[in-house]
Amino acid sequence: MPRYFVDLADLAEARGVDARKFSVGIGQEKMGVPPPDEDVVTMGASAAREALEQVDQDKIDTLMFATESGIDQSKAAAIYVHHLLGLPRNCKSFEIKQACCGSTAALQMALALVAQKPDRKVLIVASDVARYGLNSSGEPTQGAGAVALVISAQPRVMTLDPEWGAYTEDVMDFWRPNYMDEAVVDGKFSIKVYLKALTESWAQYARESGRTFADHDRFCYHLPFTRMGEKAHQQLAKLAGVTEPDMSLLAPGLHYNRIIGNSYTASLYIGLISMLENTAADLSGQRVGLFSYGSGCMAAYFSGVVSAGYRHALRMDRMQTQFETRQALTVAEYETFYQHALPRDGQRYKTPHHTTGPFRLSGMESHKRLYESTVTAAAEPTNIQVAAAG
Ligand code: CAA
User: Fold this and answer.
1) What is the dihedral of CA 176, 179, 180, 185, to 10 degrees?
2) Which CATH number fits domain 4-155+317-373: 3.40.47.10, 3.90.1180.10, 3.40.640.10, 3.40.630.30?
3) Helix 251-260 and helix 267-278, axial crossing angle in degrees, nearest 10
4) Is the separation of the CB atoms in 150 and 55 below 8 Å?
5) Would the N or C end of the chain have less CB density within 10 A of its end CB?
6) How far is CA 61 from the centre of its chain?
7) Interval between CA 264 and ligand 1 midpoint (Å)
8) At what angle do helices 40-51 and 77-85 cross, to 10 degrees?
9) Is the pTM of this model over 0.90?
10) From residue 118, how far is each of 121, 150, 155, 178, 382 by CA, in Å?
């Protein structure tokens, strides 16, 4: 997650809105704000660097980068990450897009690749900056973050079930034309479509798996804001004839998103990590239902069983350190970061130094983004200059 955040109580005050609208009505407390030298590549590479710590990089067969805030119309963000991490040259690297559901599309594709070659692994990076207009109704649902998933035939965290439900419909609930930096959204409509896609994809999943609501111990949902997850869970329970679902089971999975904000492709998986890290009970062997929604729209319902020993793969202490060392921005400082723009005329430009992460966007030259590693450990390469190929 970025090093900076805005407290939504401050945003509410600045916008003249009752703070409870954000904290209760939308269910958000803070939103992550990327500084000018942080983008989807630097956040994604940082997440992947940690995910690969105990993995033999030579086993990584494919790197898929899912994002809906891409930095280039042609070159995949995956290729920058491939370089920053020093992955093997024979590792395929490409980008996948379908709004917030791109990461889940990548996941399903990765399962097929690993089934084909069980001795290989697939790295999925999901990284996004959720950006709406200043002072718009979407503004409090912004955020930023990244997740990296290692898909393997010997999963340490979760074994996915083979049954999937899917739903696709051509709707204009949220989109971002190529010439815009902010998403365009029909907010109320997007909530309706999200819930319809949940009903439809669940129906196919339930038909194919024969599982009912009661066969799932926990639930995670795509979280554009945490109240959306609660609405989704209430709807799924209602469909199953459960009038008073135990909402306390959902709470641990909402915790991180409530203080990071929307991270589009990463959001469902940050919710899953939040649930695994913040549930005191041992979840080994428990089945989790997962709903992924990408506006536009495509959705997927699927499930997985938590692996025994999953806690060894968690990094709760590091998450806590990241939360504790984040810095609050005033609304004026957030607006300055928001308005920062990279040059579009090819001039040489150095970005101001803000991020403390292992990678940063150091600037631009001749329309090429330049990245550097700020890791100082002797074994790590420093000051890598990555120039986009012409
Ligand atoms: N105290 C407590 N609650 C209050 C309140 C107060 N003082 N004032 C308002 N509320 C409640 C409202 O009753 C409402 O709750 P319900 O939905 O349960 O009725 C909630 O706060 C929000 O109020 P509004 O509907 O009036 O808010 P809004 O019109 O300003 O917009 C929004 C809310 C549509 C979510 C907007 O923030 C938005 O467009 N966000 C971006 C789009 C989005 O996130 N869509 C989600 C589905 S699409 C998706 O999931 C993909 C993705 O990642 C984008």
Assistant:
1) -30
2) 3.40.47.10
3) 130
4) yes
5) C
6) 22
7) 16
8) 40
9) yes
10) 8, 13, 11, 38, 34
| Ligand 1 pocket residues where CB is under 6 Å | 18, 20-21, 24-26, 100, 137-138, 141, 174, 185, 187-188, 190-191, 194, 222, 224-225, 228, 262, 264, 293, 295
DSSP 303-346: EEEEPTTGGGG--HHHHHHHHHH-EEPPHHHHHHHHH----SS-
Cα 188 to ligand 1 centre (Å): 7
* Beta strand extents in 234-312 (DSSP E only): 287-294, 298-306
| Tokens read off for 199 | 């009903």
Pocket test for ligand 1, best of 132, 139, 174 (most atoms within 8 A of CB): 174
Taking all residues of the chain, what is their mean pLDDT, rounded to a whole number? 95
Contact criterion met (CB below 8 Å) for 216 and 286: no
For the segment(s) 158-310, the CATH number from 3.40.47.10, 1.10.760.10, 3.40.50.10800, 1.10.3720.10 is 3.40.47.10
Mention every residue, 6+ apart, whose C-beta is less than 8 A from residue 56: none
Residue nearest to atom 36 of ligand 1 (CA): 138
pLDDT tens-digit readout, 270-308: 999 999 999 999 999 999 999 999 999 999 999 999 999
* Calpha distance 46→332 (Å, rounded): 28
CB atoms under 10 Å from CB of 65, counted, come to: 33
**pLDDT tens digits for 232-266?**
999 999 999 999 999 999 999 999 999 999 999 99
Q: Over the stretch 75-117, which tens digit does the pLDDT of each residue have?
A: 999 999 999 999 999 999 999 999 999 999 999 999 999 999 9
How is the chain split into domains, by residue range? 4-155+317-373, 158-310
Q: What is the pLDDT of residues 334-390, one digit of tens each?
A: 999 999 999 999 999 999 999 999 999 999 999 999 999 988 543 343 333 333 322
